[in-house]
Amino acid sequence: DPQELVDAFEARVAADAFIEPKDWMPEAYRRTLIRQISQHAHSEIVGMLPEGNWITRAPSLKRKAILLAKVQDEGGHGLYLYSAAETLGSSREEMIDALHSGKAKYSTIFNYPTLTWADIGAIGWLVDGAAIMNQVPLQRTSYGPYARAMVRVCKEESFHQRQGYDALIVMANGTDEQKAMVQDAIDRWWWPAIMMFGPSDDNSPNSAQSIRWRIKRETNDELRQKFIDATVPQVLLLGMKVPDADLKWNEERGHYDYGALDWEEFYAVVRGEGPTAKERMEARRKAWDDGAWVREAADAYEARRRLKAAA
Ligand code: FAQ
């Protein structure tokens, strides 16, 4: 009886038990998860590009080794996430195709250019910092494979966040020119980073259902506020300024009040009109096309292996 299946599913979610790939689940739950997990995967893979841009220009061997490791981690995160989405019945090809045709989204943040070395520090600290704030609760998301992928991803993101802040501490204690580069990077990355949390709660069409299904454990605005509260003191510790004239500690709320986000910019970037959107998609399509021979070779190998096994 379908109602019994629905009741059993709802009871599992309410008891904070994980839903696993072979469990019955409502079709809309499956679709929401494929959407969110695949978009998360795309973000990791596209997110390799802005930083990859600086690997050959890192200022020292140490910084280069760290950056290489970070970008490789992001590739790994993308792969765990695609695998988690595949357990829901979506194929890798379908997901990649949705990205390349512009049907699937990826995080707005990766549509901004990395102009200086300080941007690499700012991405680690602010972008990975925002990612951690969003992903720590996802370790308890109701779908088992997604939750488990998040455990390792969060550990690696913590390293990413620290290395970014560490790079900026060095520059913030350096020459006037280095200090100015740090402030400039904060000025350009602050607002895009707080936009990563998505639309405000009253404009977030997916939130209510995702919270009911315990896919999302906290709302976009709750996470954004937590991120701002945690990050402002870190800006001040660097001796830098937050580029928000309305930012003010609110004693009564126990939180920072902050200025209005530029939602027009946010939605324009979501629509694919971000400063580097075209370049990012071209790079992804080219990587996919250039890798065709690897997929073909793997298929040919598998066909030969089967032929041999059958003989
Ligand atoms: N960019 O109703 P909601 C990383 C879309 S971290 C683009 O609130 P939802 C690590 C949203 O998809 C970044 N689109 O949606 C890293 C929806 O459209 P749809 C990735 C956005 O799903 C660091 C529509 O707006 N992290 O990659 C954005 O309930 C450094 C309405 O929004 C994740 O994906 C945005 N910022 O909440 C890598 C975390 N915000 O799908 C490299 C997992 C919203 O209906 C270097 N995802 N939209 O067509 C989530 O937690 C959620 O999906 C949210 C959005 C919170 C992003």
Please tell me about this protein's structure:
There is one protein chain. β1 and β2 form a beta hairpin. It contains 13 helices and two strands; from the N terminus they run ααααααααααββααα. Helices cover about 70% and strands about 0% of the residues. With about 300 residues, it is mainly α. A two-stranded antiparallel ribbon has the order 1-2. Phenylacetyl coenzyme A binds near residues 36 and 40.
In a few lines, what is going on in this structure?
This protein has 311 residues and is mainly α. Helix content is 68%, strand content 2%. The chain has a two-stranded antiparallel sheet with strand order 1-2.
Q: In total, how many beta strands? A: 2
Low-confidence stretches: none
Q: What class, by secondary structure content?
A: mainly alpha
Gyration radius, rounded: 21 Å
Number of helices: 13
Main beta sheet: strand number and arrangement?
2 strands, antiparallel
Q: Give the overall average pLDDT.
A: 97
Shape category: globular
* Assembly state (oligomeric): single chain
Secondary-structure element order, N to C: HHHHHHHHHHEEHHH
Set out the fold topology.
Blueprint: H1 2-14, H2 27-46, H3 48-52, H4 61-86, H5 92-100, H6 117-138, H7 144-172, H8 176-195, H9 207-212, H10 220-237, E1 248-250, E2 255-257, H11 263-273, H12 277-290, H13 292-310
Antiparallel strand pairs: 1-2
Helix pairs in contact: 2-4, 4-7, 6-7, 6-8, 6-10
The protein binds Phenylacetyl coenzyme A.
Phenylacetyl coenzyme A (FAQ) binds at residues 35-36, 39-40, 43-44, 47, 74, 105, 107-108, 123, 127-128, 131, 134, 195-199, 204-207, 210, 216, 220, 270.
InterPro entries: Aromatic_CoA_ox/epox, Ferritin-like, Ferritin-like_SF, PaaA, PaaA_PaaC
Pfam family, one: PaaA_PaaC
Organism: Sphingosinicella xenopeptidilytica
